[in-house]
Amino acid sequence: MPTADPEPPFSARLLSGWGRDIAVAGAFLTRLPLRPAGADAACALALAARAFPLIGLGVGAVAAGGLWLASGLGLHPIGCALIGLALAAALTGALHEDGLADVADGFGGGSDCNAKLKIMRDSRIGAFGVLALIFSVGIRTTVLGGLMGAGLAEATLVCAAVVSRAVLPMMMARMPLARSDGLAAAAGTPNDETAWTALVLGTVGSIVLLGLMSGLIAVASACVTTVAVAWLSRRQIRGYTGDVLGAVQQAVETAVIVAAGATAL
Fold it and tell me: What does pTM read for this prediction?
């Protein structure tokens, strides 16, 4: 009777397949014209989720580069921060901002679970969504502008982009889906190894970019924010959707930037 091939050791799994995973994750999280190979897209994305923080590194680097160039041209710090955030939104197709707005409209306007999910699928934006975007962009812009004087804005922006994507696989692995179709359902469920790899990458990146204490504080704020949004999502719609993942990314990015601003005082 034939036996199944033994599973590769952890070290081999950890070191192999990163090029494929970056392509799959990049195609999912950005507007880049990537064409990852593989027939089972859901399975591929569930495994490729470990590369989410690396996609965040790329997005954050582009955003920080725009902020730095704008600063070199002598623009106001608030304007520089807005340019950085605008570049990140353009690179991702405002995927996460759209999720935040949909979640705010659904959670704020729906009377029950089904009504909330229906509102979240509506492409139109409501008052709650508009306010959520205004507050999110406003807080991040203001804090980043204040960090420019200390020379920390660029590193903080990159760190926030990395960590806010590093927490997503763990949430996908731990929470149930709110519905059986949609973007989150198609993405599949990462295993624990994938989720922890992403979180460790995000933690290491945060420490490298902000230093030991500030980096750990940023990661702690990210974890607390993720748990809070996950708890709210379970109460509101009994699980998560792709929109909720977008809202988590935006909330965590904001929390990391605020934490960096607080520790820089």
Answer: 0.93
